[in-house]
Amino acid sequence: GDSAPPTGSNALSGTIQIDGSSTVFPVTQAVAEEFRKEQPGVQVNVAVSGTGGGFKRFTVGETDISNASRPIKGSEAEAAAANGVEFIEMRVGTDGLSVMVNNDNDFVDCLTVEELNEIWKPGSTINNWQDVRAGFPDQRLRLYGPDTDSGTFDYFTEEVNGEVQVSRADYTASGDDNVLVQGIAGDRGALGYFGYAYYQENKDNLKVVAIDDGDGCVLPEPSTIEDGSYKPLSRPLFIYVNRKSLERPEVKAFLTFYMDHGYQLTGEEGYVPVDPSVYAANKAEAGL
Amino acid sequence: MQLSRNRKRGALQGRIVHWLFFACAAMSVITTFGIVASLLRESLGFFGEIPVWEFLFGTTWSPILKDAEGNRHYGVLPLVSGTLLVASIAAAVAVPAGLAIAIYLSEYAPDKVRRLIKPILEVLAGIPTVVYGYFALTFVTPLLRSIPIQVFREDLIVYNALSAGLVMGLMIIPMVSSLSEDAMVAVPRSLRHAAYALGGTRLEVSLRIVVPAAFSGIVASFILAFSRAIGETMLVTIAAGATPRLTFNPIESIQTMTAFIVQLAHGETPHGSLEYNTIFAVGLLLFAFTLGMNVLGHFLVRRFREEY
Amino acid sequence: MTTTEATATDTTLSVTGLDMYYGSFRALRDINLEVTRNSVTALIGPSGSGKSTLLRCFNRMNDLIPGARVEGQVLFNGEDIYHPSIDPTEIRLRVGMVFQKPNPFPKSIYDNVAFGLRINGFRGNMDEAVERSLRRAALWDEVKDRLKASGLTLSGGQQQRLCIARAVAVQPDVILMDEPASALDPISTLAIEDLMRELSRDYTIVVVTHNMQQAARVSDWTAFMTMGEDRAGYLVEVGDTHQIFTNPRDERTEGYITGRFG
Amino acid sequence: MTTTEATATDTTLSVTGLDMYYGSFRALRDINLEVTRNSVTALIGPSGSGKSTLLRCFNRMNDLIPGARVEGQVLFNGEDIYHPSIDPTEIRLRVGMVFQKPNPFPKSIYDNVAFGLRINGFRGNMDEAVERSLRRAALWDEVKDRLKASGLTLSGGQQQRLCIARAVAVQPDVILMDEPASALDPISTLAIEDLMRELSRDYTIVVVTHNMQQAARVSDWTAFMTMGEDRAGYLVEVGDTHQIFTNPRDERTEGYITGRFG
Amino acid sequence: MARAEITALLNPRLAVRKRIGTVAYVIFIAAILIGLAGLASLLLRVLWQGAPWLSLHFLTDYPSRFAEQAGMKSAIFGTVWIMGLTGLFTVPVGVGAAVYLEEYAPKNWFTRIVEVNISNLAGVPSIVYGLLGLAVFVQILALGRTVVAGALTMSLLVMPIVIIASREAIRAVPSTYREASYGLGATKFQTVKDVVLPHALPGIMTGTILAMSRAIGEAAPMIAISALVFLTFIPTDPLDEFTVMPVQIYNWVRDPRPEFHGLAAAGIIVLLAVLLSMNAVAIYIRNRTQKRSEE
Ligand SMILES: Nc1ncnc2c1ncn2[C@@H]1O[C@H](COP(=O)(O)OP(=O)(O)OP(=O)(O)O)[C@@H](O)[C@H]1O
Ligand SMILES: Nc1ncnc2c1ncn2[C@@H]1O[C@H](COP(=O)(O)OP(=O)(O)OP(=O)(O)O)[C@@H](O)[C@H]1O
Ligand SMILES: [Mg+2]
Ligand SMILES: [Mg+2]
After folding, report:
1. How far does the centroid of ligand 2 lie from the alpha carbon of residue D231, in Å?
2. CB contact B112 to C (< 8 Å)
3. I need a labelling partner for E176 at 20 to 30 A (CA). Which of A125, C249, D18, E73 fits?
């Protein structure tokens, strides 16, 4: 697109309401921040009510765009239809959940999904690495994970424990990923998980663990996440756009900008962008 | 004289003004009703599904996270224990320190020193609690972890009740010291003189005469400070963790009632859901807790005022 | 200027050239006075003449007032109580004090009396000591059934006797009393006056009073104070009470006693 | 009991069978009194006899004390001031008051005097009115150059005259004064006394005083009050000041005036 | 028992008692030092970590995902808005309530209830006010997560402080002023308006400033009211969404990237600077009026 500063007639105004997933939030925030340099008259409000919470507002028409770290559910789509809200789904990237241990941990390189499940399933009593796998040393195991009130938690529990929000409870939970980083970095026996983006930020302080879903150990890397070989802990990121809002020039401009810079900004925020063609396809579908 | 006065209008105006002022005062009562009513309204849905006794006496709190059978648990005791744990650590810091400061200021300090120190301590009370949270998380916890003891070096995690409690103690010191000092200053000088005239030292007069005479006021200051600690929110949200856990081990990460409310209010749980309404149930409990303590504290303050 | 007729050995307190300041304000000027052992000495004089101030010099209570300062000498049994080596708490143990308004501690009657003994490490039979002091203060019969009751439940006159019992308990040599009956009704006042006379057999008593009749009734010696233009109090005349009241040497004394001035 | 010799038309205030209560305590008993127009009436009597209380009955200031209650009648120019249809603020506008301690508002001298006029919707020339009042109170010459200065910067005597100017400004019929000079030095006191005599040409003045000489000097009429065993104050005797001071009819009056009692 | 025996039974151990007294004195001083040291280390820590991040653009830029570009403009303006409206709502009502209680209220059970109620409201945790605001202003009155909802919530939170301080100030007005005013035929309202309130004004202002400085630092109720995390605009009318300084600081503290902790500290410095100057003004007013009433 053109990124010339607005002059006279093409200076836009208005407010764009965005809500939804905290995982997608950094990308949308980055887009909004960059977009503001082009169109300082447009007010972009980005809230974080979670994917579900965001859809709740989106499907009644309160918001223009909804950030989502999963596809919309049937029930949510029905609610939208009932309220006369038509929408477009736009894929913007992929997130890989990363499993982390302390830098000084020299015995763990790879864990199987079953082992993760043994550790994280509700009622699990594994508190020592030697109970995880024969051959691991006698080292106290302490767990770190995101806040129960987050999309990351939902996603991890669904994939590892088989049902959303099912997990053992006695781990150090934090909505503040920094605490997880610090906790794991400061605790020899730590094991934890969080978004790939935060691992990217703290590569030097933490050690990432490869995951074996039956097809061998795979490390989360842009290539493995994008091609889906990093299983099962990679997930798609979307934004949903209300078709009616698309009639407004400022929303149009914003989405155009999103798709034009999505590839770069998604990467900058630590996620794995989708193929540039997907952004182009999104644009085409929205008629931009 | 060219005085003019519409008496009728004056009287009417007087009545209107009276009622306006009355309405202002009544606002406070309305606020209380508003608090109770809105908390009750929102938590009624919750108590419709979860029996009150299960809420009050259950020992597992996992309103979002499900167990192996896919059930959630709504026993608030872990939040209560977390709250009391942090508040107790705070009290363990603030009560002795605050009392010692109060004794010093009321019995020992020359006027100049008192006038210098009191405003400085008041600054402590005026610092926003986010700042204390920041301080606990980024300074006190690392400081504790640098203590070369196994417990601190190895077992103390970033979020823990200990540093939150210690810093909260620092925060409520001025509350204890200034209310206690008020109570001690109110003890008649004549009692001190009588004790000095019997050969008492300053310490004996302070501890055996002044402190006992001001006792209910001092206790009231403890209660009010403890109540403040229970209701404190940002500090624990930032520094004490988000792990509801029925424990009294200070080096563990825990979650307080207040931090839970912030977590959900700030998080992704959809409004209106059962999970979401838990915050009003917890809020109601918190309100009841602090209300009880405040009533007791103010009752004691009044009692000691009436004593002399 | 002093006119005590007692011999030196009979003197409990002896004041020489005493000046006393509150900050820069001189409240007492060149006081010279001897207080005779086992007698009652009354300090009289107009309000503000420094009677209370002088009394508090005798047990160093003025030390508690910031900025208060003493020059000159106060000897207690021959010892200079303002000597740097002297601990004021020790002086106060041996020179007791009773105040204008009854001020029992908000503790039980028993604990009020026991307080001074306890802090001073009394190792004898406490019950006995408490009873003896209460008897000494003519209060025992009235309170023996409720020793655990708060001292504040007593009437004003009883409270004042409790304060006397409290002062007596540690067996001081001197008891200072600052208008001890001025807050009391006439009947309680008489009881306190009787008590003073009774106590003076064993104790040296210095009493400040505004009541001429009272001074005449209870005291053996009377000292009259007044103040100068600079508001500094000074001693006009000291002497045998009878003489002072019937035949004062100084006309200011006479003026005060006959109510013409002050 | 009343012994005013004035005729009915000369009467500004007329009190009949007045009882006054603070809650359940009766402070005044059966007061009967007539106050003569354009004269000074002094209320004298021992402390606590209800002089201030009676004075405050004349402009309903007692209404402001919770629990205060009046029985009986007070007529002001023939009108019952306690009649339900009467607005107390109107009474106070016409019956002004000067208090024991000078109490100028912490405002400028000008604003102090203008206060009463402003709140009562005065529409004339304010500067003139202020000057007239200050002259009336014999204060104009001393303050005319600093009308904007705070009333609190004046000396005590000036402050009291300012308060009189403030009261005079709204042109009341009666001015009540409760020991207006008792907080002042002798010279200011004389100035106030002169002022009272001067004002009585145009105003009716009722003044409470403890100072017999003052009452004798300034008043035309004197009322003597005392109190009974139940502490209720009552009126003993009212009459021409000269007569009361030289030849009181009641021996209680005589006892008080000669200083034998009270 | 003779006096000598009693005296013999006393054991004043003055030296020991004096030593104990000295030890206690040291303990008292230590307690004060703990408080002061806590304060000092807090301030130094904040300064040390935040100072490098302070600059003009920090005050005039919007938040950014790049720490170097981030500023707290939207939070500062949000705070200004909230403070302004809170003052507007709180002061009239709070002073009105104080006037009612001091000047008008009869001594009856209702007045007692109001008084007890106010002192209790002062002790209700701020997050509970947040829940009240969320339920009443955001949801029932449908004001949404707007400046006005936030300010109303904050008003209720600080109202007790204003009421209590104003009552103290009004009580300190000498009753002779009231008497003089009534004596001139002033009505109650005129007396309150022209005599009592002007004289109580410094005290009321001090109380209001203290209330505002409480409000300025409160994050919890604002978090309950506003879910907005990223805001590139300043509110222009009361129905706009907003964020405030302490919430911005909280978001930065929560950020996993360490440089954002520096930003948080810088934000704290700004917040504390505002707060301390407000306190200084309050203390100045208090001292000045104290001096004046002593004169
Ligand atoms: N703590 C103090 N600080 C400064 N000045 C004081 C203090 N106590 C007393 N004074 C002053 O010292 C002078 C003597 O006071 P003192 O109380 O000894 O008089 P007094 O003779 O006992 O009077 P009274 O009969 O009224 O009790 C007075 O001018 C008084 O104002
Ligand atoms: N506000 C009040 N409430 C209750 N009782 C009061 C009140 N004001 C005065 N009294 C009582 O009413 C009686 C008369 O008081 P008042 O002030 O009228 O006496 P007074 O003659 O003016 O005395 P003084 O010469 O001391 O001024 C006293 O017993 C007093 O205690
Ligand atoms: Mg005295
Ligand atoms: Mg009077």
Report:
1. 10
2. no
3. D18
Q: Which residue has the tokens 């008649």?
A: B188
Q: CA-nearest residue of chain C to B109? A: C66
Closest by alpha carbon to B289, among B244, B247, B226, B242?
B226
Give the DSSP letter of residue E138: I
Instruction: Please tell me which of the candidates B2, B5, B10 has its beta carbon nearest to residue D124.
Output: B2
Taking the C-alpha atoms of residue E20 and residue A86, their distance in angstroms, rounded to an integer, is 81
Is there a contact between C92 and B198 if contact means CB atoms under 8 Å apart?
yes
What count of other Cβ atoms lies within 10 Å of the Cβ of residue D169? 28
Identity of residue A192: G
Task: Please check whether residue A172 is in contact with residue B239, taking contact to mean a CB–CB distance below 8 angstroms.
Answer: no
Residue pLDDT, tens place only, B195-231: 999 999 999 999 999 999 998 889 999 999 999 999 9
Q: Quote the CA–CA distance of D197 and D202 in Å, as a whole number.
A: 10
Residue E80 one-letter amino acid: V
> CB of B235 within 8 A of CB of B171?
yes
The atom number, within ligand 2, closest to the CA of D56 reads 18
SS3 C16: strand
Whether the Cβ atoms of residue E245 and residue E267 lie closer than 8 Å to each other: yes
Least confident residue range of A225-234, B122-131, E220-229: E220-229
Q: How much is the pTM?
A: 0.84
The amino acid at D77:
N
Contact B22 E114 (CB under 8 A): no
Alpha carbon distances (Å) from E166 to B299, C128, E101: 22, 56, 10
pLDDT tens digit sequence for A152-166:
888 888 888 888 888
Residue A96, beta-bridge partner list = A234
In one-letter notation, the amino acid at residue D12 is T
Residues within 6 Å of ligand 2 by CB: D 22, 25, 27, 45, 47-53, 65, 231, 233
Q: Does residue B142 have a cis peptide bond before it, meaning omega lies within 30 degrees of 0?
A: no
Phi, psi (rounded to 5 degrees) for A195 = -65, 150
Q: Where are the alpha helices (DSSP H) in C98-200?
A: 109-119, 126-136, 140-143, 156-169, 186-199
Residue C22 C-alpha, separation from nearest chain B C-alpha, in angstroms: 16
- Other CB atoms within 10 Å distance of the CB of residue B87: 26
One-letter amino acid at D89 equals T
Domains of chain D from N-terminus onward: 2-104+173-257 (3.40.50.300)
* pLDDT tens series, chain D, 262 aa: 344 444 446 899 999 999 999 999 999 999 999 999 999 999 998 888 999 999 999 999 988 888 899 999 999 999 999 998 888 888 999 999 999 889 999 899 999 999 999 988 888 999 999 999 999 898 999 999 999 999 988 988 899 999 999 999 999 999 999 999 887 777 888 888 999 999 999 999 999 998 888 898 899 999 999 988 888 999 999 999 999 988 889 988 888 877 544 3
pLDDT tens for residues C62-99? 988 988 999 999 999 999 999 999 989 999 999 999 99
Q: Which residues contact B208 (CB under 8 A, 6 or more apart)?
A: B195, B200, C115, C119
**Which DSSP category does B295 fall into?**
H
The reply to whether CATH 1.10.3720.10 applies to domain E56-294 is: yes
How far is C-alpha C183 from the chain's CA centre? 16
Using alpha carbons, select from E57, E259, E69, E68 the residue that is nearest to residue A33: E69
